[in-house]
Design brief:
By secondary structure, the protein is an alpha/beta fold. It has helices spanning about 20-30, 40-55, 65-75, 90-95, 115-120, 140-150, 205-215, 235-245, 245-265, 300-305, 335-345, 355-370, and strands spanning about 55-60, 80-85, 100-105, 125-130, 155-160, 165-170, 170, 180-185, 195-200, 215-220, 220, 270, 285-290, 345-350. Helix content is about 35%, strand content about 15%. The strands form 4 sheets. The chain has a 7-stranded mixed sheet, with helices on both faces. A 3-stranded antiparallel sheet has the order 12-13-14.
Amino acid sequence: MTNEAVPPLYVTKPWLPPLEELTPYFEQIWSSKILSNMGPLHQRFEREVAEYLGVKHISVVANATIALVLALRRFKMKGEVITTPFSFVATANSIVEAGLKPVFVDVLPGTYALDPAQIEANITPETCAIMPVHCFGYGCDTGAIDAIAKKHNLKVIYDAAHAFGIRDQGGSILRHGNASILSFHATKVFTTFEGGAIISETEEDKREVDRLTNFGFNGDIVDEVGTNAKMSELGAAVGLVLLKHIDTLIAERGKRDAIYRELLRDVPGIKALDWPAGQTRNYYNFPVLVEDSFPVRCEELVERMKERGVFGRRYFYPLLPDFPIHKDARGARAPLPVARDVASRIMCLPLHPTLTLEEQQRVVDSIRRVL
């Protein structure tokens, strides 16, 4: 049983700025009485987060799931979207919500991102787009994916929910494809409590996304079915304050990543994932593989750790094709050997900017005790 005297350690914990830093923004909102509808704080937040990320065209919205839907709908496509089975359910749900059909193909070992060879092998006349995921912030093979898309005249919408601030050798990883989607959910490295963003390739794309975000208005008329996906002024205020701290928060996550690697160095059967070369890190979470040499399987280890108040999480289990709503999608019954193997062996350990050394030792001790 869990020791009630010891506080539980969850896979993440949001960091909130001092309340007094938010007060001037709240006072501005109370004074202006502008609460939503792309107000001044919304517009300022778009400018400042775009500058921080090194991108040109960004639309901040209510959440990342609606951002994925809007990005897909902007291109008015019909048919199938090739995507990964190893992701959060919003990835596949957004494809269906946009009136398209997900197609699942296998991922690469190591980064667990879409395998470009599997993408190309599964393209048919029905294929209209590719939706790769920068899983854990580990970048996809963007060069290969973008080349395949160009060759077959397909759109690419990157699910970059985990990839805030990550750069490759050419700049922001968010510049690839026709759009990239960020999540500002409470569990993410950067948060507005709830929120998301669409990074568009062109200014025209941003204008169309913004129009769809605001019900589809074109001037005073609505000539296309949009939705209400606007971020409130309160969310924008939180984002503006968090931006001032984000580099420090990422650095603190990095320190804890390094401590975990040292503490786990002599724990047999537990392997921390390596980071892809040529990319910066945001230390979104700390995934480990439970290898065959470990005494118990991943699912049992998770339960044994819970008994000691340590709540790791199996990202991502089950696979998307194993959810009843996606079981009939093309590729759902394919072997998907790499995705199925990693889903059975991976878990994420607690990681956040205020995690103490004692708490990290407690996490690793809950693993050692199984040995």
